[in-house]
Structure formats: C-alpha cells, structure tokens
C-alpha cells in the first residue's frame, strides 16, 4: 500500500545505511548485567494491515516475570505506517510504533526480546540490535525463519531440546540455530546488544514451555498482535 518513487527510496536507503554504520561500532556482544538479577523480560512484536488506502501497524509488548513466567504487563500502540517494508531496514519501519508502546510501560524490563534478528543481519544491525539504542536495555533477536546472508545456509541441529549449531559467516559467528522443542523446527537467535550469545541462548531456553518453540515473551507478544489487529481492523 505504501508507494514511494525511486529517488525517494534511494535517498532513504542512503540515510538508513549511514545510521546503521554509525551505530555498529557501539554494539557490544557482552553482558552488562548479572543473569541472577534478571527479573522482567519483555517480548516485542509488530503486525501490519492495509485499510482505506493506508498501511497501519500495531506493536505489542508483553512483560513477564523471568522466574514465574507470569505476565506482569501488556501494552500496545498503533498508527499509520509511512515507511515501506525494505529488507534489512525493518527498524526504520517499526521503531516509531515500538517506542510509542515502550512509553506506556509502567514496569521497566531488564531485557527486551524481539520477533526478528539482531546481529544476524547483513550489516549486524537487525531490529533487536537497532532498537537497543532506543530502549537502552540489553536485547535478543528471536526469528522464526532464517535470514540467508552471503548465500550461507544454516546447519540443522540435532533433534533434542537445547541442541544448536552456530551460524558462521566469513569466520564470524552471526547467530545460532537453536532447537527448543524436539521434532519441531528450530528458531534462529542472535545477540541484540549488551549481551553475549551463550547468555542469550540460556535465557531463551529458560523461557520455553510446552506450548511453543518460541520463548514465552515473544510468543505472547505475537499472539497479542493478532488480537489487537483484529480489534483495530473492526474499528478503523
């Protein structure tokens, strides 16, 4: 539904690439927190739809207790989206909605999990990494499908819970293919920022239950976007 001309698109791409290149040196794949002090984890997801010649988006954030897995808070935001979907630049489309939702939180998450990639990205600045500079918290990327980079395929992990294979591109680990549930498709996790891959894996696995291959905060945020989108579609 969003249509822009080639010159405008080229200008946006140059601006977006420059911002990603500026942020990349500030990305730190190491922990700035103690796992034993982790209490609140937020899951973030965004959904879109077209109506009346406009594209709308809704962002949902679900905060859960890391220990009990109970929902602590749910918030959402919605609005007209003006940036088209451009592969590799998802953050520029989603961040306005995400930050509108973040501002509604009354609880302060210790970590944010995003339905998408982080360091596992062509320029290492996926939505989870990019958003870290806005939410000012450690972040983890959790993707349901694989983003192929430089024509490198992932290696399927063994068929047992917790099995994983690292995604190695040009001798650098971009992320991890993780089997969270036996005999179910793996997920693809990557550091967002201010966290290492081992800790990201541990946190994800500790938030898996029998209901889904996805960690609880991401799954619940995804489910919430369907509910919110349906309600908004009926009113807009």
From TrEMBL:
Residues annotated for Mg(2+) binding in this entry: 45, 115
Enzyme Commission number(s): 3.1.21.7
Keyword entries, A-Z: Cytoplasm, DNA damage, DNA repair, Endonuclease, Hydrolase, Magnesium, Metal-binding, Nuclease
Cofactor or coenzyme needed: Mg(2+)
Annotated catalysed reactions: Endonucleolytic cleavage at apurinic or apyrimidinic sites to products with a 5'-phosphate
Coiled coil: none
Location(s), subcellular: Cytoplasm
GO terms assigned for molecular function: deoxyribonuclease V activity; magnesium ion binding; RNA endonuclease activity producing 5'-phosphomonoesters, hydrolytic mechanism; single-stranded RNA binding
Predominant localisation class: cytoplasm
Site residues by UniProt (Interaction with target DNA): 85
A GO CC term assigned to this protein in UniProt: cytoplasm
Record carries keyword RNA-binding: no
One Pfam family, short name: Endonuclease_5
GO biological process: DNA repair
Family: Belongs to the endonuclease V family.
UniProt xrefs under PANTHER family: ENDONUCLEASE V
Record's function text: DNA repair enzyme involved in the repair of deaminated bases. Selectively cleaves double-stranded DNA at the second phosphodiester bond 3' to a deoxyinosine leaving behind the intact lesion on the nicked DNA.
Protein name in the entry: Endonuclease V
Gene that encodes it: nfi
